[in-house]
Amino acid sequence: MKKIIFSALAALAFVGVSCSSDDNSSDNGNGITPPNKVIKVIEKININSVSTSDYDEADKPEYSEGVVELKYNDANKVTSIVGDGTDVLYNFIYDDKGIVKEIEYFESVYEWGEGEKIEKRKHIVSDFLGLAPFNFGKLGKINTIDKGNPVDLTFYSYNDQDKVEGEYKTEIKYDNKPFAAFHTLNTTGAIDLSKKTQIDFGPSQAAMTGLKYANELLPMNNPTYLKHAYVGDKAYLESKITYQYDNNQYPTSFEFEIKDYYRTSYGWDPIKQEVKYKWVTDITKGKATITYKEMK
Fold first, then answer.
1. Does residue 224 contact residue 175 with C-beta atoms inside 8 Å?
2. Which among 286, 164, 288, 171 has a CA at the least distance from the CA of 228?
3. CA triple 173-245-80, angle to 5 deg
4. How do the domains of the chain map onto residue ranges?
5. 83-124 pLDDT per residue, tens
6. Distance between CA 191 and CA 22 in Å, rounded?
7. Which of 3, 10, 72, 93 is 20 to 30 A removed from 282 (C-alpha atoms)?
8. Are residues 191 and 20 in contact, defined by beta-carbon separation less than 8 angstroms?
9. DSSP letters of the chain?
10. What secondary structure letter does DSSP report for 295?
11. Which of 170, 132, 130 is nearest to 149 (CA)?
């Protein structure tokens, strides 16, 4: 669970991209993050959490603590995101213009007879942030944008025949402060790249049609609530975040709660000769502090 939280928080810092690297610009309905007067980048996130589950009455709370660190090179560009000092979550590879071109990550892979192995994977940034249109229409659709933030989205899952087999609804709420990781993300060059990246919404049933630029669609504030639910089913994932801010409007700490409600098997019914299922709620609550370094 701890590793999932680390990965989620690290990814959150780089998913909520704002849309302008111009620190002197401000346009509150256009997805542009109002600039902070003081430029800071995220250096460290300390996390403490406790997880509980009603799967079994004998289950005890699981306590976790750890650190997510962002490493920078001499040019003040993010080079890696590390958990607990040595557990590398992501590496950032740059081109000769100083723009991120690859993001490496590591996965645990189980092989029969060999046990667990750690294998390196990578995302090619140009595959989803490049000059060629990105086909968002296949993944889902953005139903509503409010004050530059996507607040209502639909996502699809596919079977082996590439046919839609599931639909998910996502609701997101935000605070009114500038996105905390804006300047951190800006060190990678991804914000400038997003202003050139076209998104194709595909079929006309999408709420937003035609080509848009990525920087017009990505959030400008910090997410405070997210609910991801499977349409036609009771399963859902819900997250709540409450921030504390410094005088420059940067979040310096936050409390979070993640609730996962799902159906799972829990044994065999010898009379009915079938697997037994029940609905389970897993809850993770925690606190985190964010340490920044100021850019001169």
1. yes
2. 171
3. 80
4. 2-294
5. 887 788 899 999 888 888 888 888 877 777 777 777 878 776
6. 10
7. 10
8. yes
9. -HHHHHHHHHHHHHHS--S---TT--BTTTTBPPPPSS-EEEEEEEEEEEEEESS-TT---EEEEEEEEEEE-TTS-EEEEEETTTEEEEEEEE-TTS-EEEEEEEEEEEETTTEEEEEEEEEEHHHHSSSSPEEHHHHEEEEEEETTEEEEEEEEEE-TTS-EEEEEEEEEEEEEEEPTTHHHHHTTTHHHHHTT-EEE--STTSSS-SEEEGGGTS-SEEEEEEEEEETTSS-EEEEEEEEEE-TTS-EEEEEEEEEEEEEEEEEEETTTTEEEEEEEEEEEEEEEEEEEEE--
10. -
11. 170
- Low-confidence residues in the chain, pLDDT < 70: 1-35, 124, 126-133, 202-210
Type of residue at 157: S
Written as six digits, the tokens of 98 are 């100083």
For residue 192, with 0-12 CB atoms within 10 Å meaning exposed, 13-18 middle and 19 or more buried, which class applies? middle
Quote the mean pLDDT of the chain: 82
- State both tokens at 111: 């092989």
CA distances from 159 to 112, 162, 164, 165, 166 (A): 25, 5, 7, 6, 9
pTM: 0.80
Contact in structure between 44 and 68 (CB atoms under 8 Å): yes
Please enumerate in sequence order all residues whose Cβ is within 8 A of that of 114, keeping only pairs 6 or more positions apart, or say none.
Answer: none
Q: How far apart are CA 239 and CA 90, in angstroms?
A: 23
